[in-house]
Predict the structure of Ferric oxidoreductase domain-containing protein.
Amino acid sequence: MVYYVWLVVNSLLLISSLLVIWVSHPYDSATVLAGKWFAQLAILLFFINVNMYFIFLVIRKSKARHVKVTLSKRARSMMKAHIPFALVGTSMILFHGAIMAWKVGATIGFIHPKMVTGYGSVGLLTITLLAGFLRHRKASGFRRKFHLIAAMLFACLFLIHLFWPI
Ligand code: HEM
Ligand code: HEM
């Protein structure tokens, strides 16, 4: 049951992000188009990273042994990509932010909510990365919570940023 809710939520997020990015916001230049592609690819990688929480949650809660074993194997292989995904996503987002600040900022204004939620997302992403590295070096209860809360706040803010109309 939880599994289906999770699947449906993920699919809805994916479809709605595609709609927002490619249907509802037309672009006016090739550079902005590249900036949108950077953002689209980066949020896919971030979605996968945020999903680790739900995978670990299902592993913890599940009573069926075969589910625990199969998911644990999958989680282990996904965690191999966790840090590369974070770093590649971050590089793409930096290009995205730079392109948008350069090409769109002057048109919609640098204090437009789309811009401000963008700056905020970069800030939370930085904190998430920092917390991830701390946790990677030496995990503790506090470091686990810190990385998790940072990641969730980051996801909330970038979703607001994504859906904010311009
Ligand atoms: C300095 C930071 C940022 C600035 C100035 C910024 C600015 C913008 C602007 C102006 C758009 C609208 C582009 C258009 O549709 O023509 C946009 C779209 C988008 N941004 Fe950002 N952004 C920043 C950071 C981020 C971050 C950190 C994320 C995600 C982690 C992100 C994800 C997205 C996504 C997915 C879209 C596509 C939605 C749409 O087309 O409206 N952005 N951004
Ligand atoms: C886009 C950035 C990132 C996001 C959205 C993200 C998100 C997450 C989430 C949601 C979890 C599951 C947390 C839990 O259930 O307690 C997690 C686990 C973890 N993350 Fe990240 N993370 C990011 C970047 C990083 C980075 C850069 C590192 C390390 C250099 C890192 C290291 C870890 C480690 C070690 C775990 C624990 C895995 C385990 O328990 O086996 N993360 N991350």
